[in-house]
Amino acid sequence: MKIFSGVQPTNQLHIGNYLGAIKQWVALQENNECIYCIVDLHALTIPYDPKQLPAKIRETVVALIAAGLDPEKCIIFAQSQIKEHAELAWLLNTICPLGELERMTQYKDKSKKFKDNINVGLLDYPVLMAGDILLYKAGGVPVGKDQEQHVELTRTLARKFNQKFGKVFDEPKSLILQEGAKIMSLMDPKKKMSKSDDAKSCIFLFDAPEAITKKIMAAATDSGKDIKYNLTKKPGISNLLMIYSLLTGKTTQELEKEFAGKNYGEFKKSLAEVLVNYLEPFRKKQTEFAARDVYVQEILKQGATKAQKIAETTMREVKQKMGLI
Predict the structure, then answer these.
(1) Which CATH number is 68's domain given?
(2) Which domain holds residue 64?
(3) DSSP state for residue 241 in the 8-state scheme
(4) In a 3-state reduction of DSSP, which class is residue 292?
(5) Fewer CB within 10 Å: N-end or C-end of the chain?
(6) How would you list the strands of the sheet with 2-7, edge to edge?
(7) Closest CA to 286 of 16, 63, 56, 61
(8) Secondary structure (DSSP) of 11-78
(9) Structure confidence by residue, pLDDT tens digits, 76-124
């Protein structure tokens, strides 16, 4: 299957990004044609520093390969280097009803968060994402739960295009993990873990061991002492149990038995040790690849060359169907 997904070059990647998406990307690259994109055009919809953006893109590539992506097994490139992304997004805009965009949950959330920067790009973000996916005729899109609505719009636009102009696109499917699709904030377990929130609420992939331990020990828990998985009554400890489960392969039920009779402090200490040990290889690789800027640039260059060939072929077909060639 052809797979497409992307990540914004904004702030550091955290354990929620890894468990909810990147871990799946690493597994998928073994038996699929995978295309992974640094979606820098999407990143322009919120406030950013143009001087820092190139470094952020390279840092994101380093993070992805440190976390397990192999440039020999997948395509990694920067979205802005392939002009066909923006071109296809514009063409899809002409068949996308405005009402579909106005009802998008992420648009509503970001409009509240960035009240003085409600730009058209923020509204049109899902159409550009549809263009990203359809440009490579992806059959599967590994995403977090919060992006599922956007993939559904992509399916709708693919169907509308095919009906109006003739068959070009398949309708891609969301590949959402059954567990771990949504890791919550350490400080507020009712909110999703986010790169843009307070650093205390996230475990970043390259945090120092001391920082990881400090954050876990300070993480919000719940009333009572029992270490039980119950999202409604005990969201704090349930979030920590899910992280522990995904990192070790143990079920939450097995962890409940393992920590029966123990207190939150003992559980957190054990989880911190698990996290430190799990992320240690990532930290070592990140240090190694961060010092190899030429290698990272070459990954982006080769990835763009491969992506360009696919993009040009798709756009030629799209333009022919729309009467533009």
Answers:
(1) 3.40.50.620
(2) 2-181+292-322
(3) H
(4) coil
(5) C
(6) 74-78, 33-38, 2-7, 140-142, 173-175
(7) 63
(8) S--BHHHIIIIIHHHHHHTTTSEEEEEE-HHHHTTS---TTTHHHHHHHHHHHHHHTT--TTTEEEEE
(9) 999 999 999 999 999 999 999 998 998 888 777 776 776 777 788 888 9
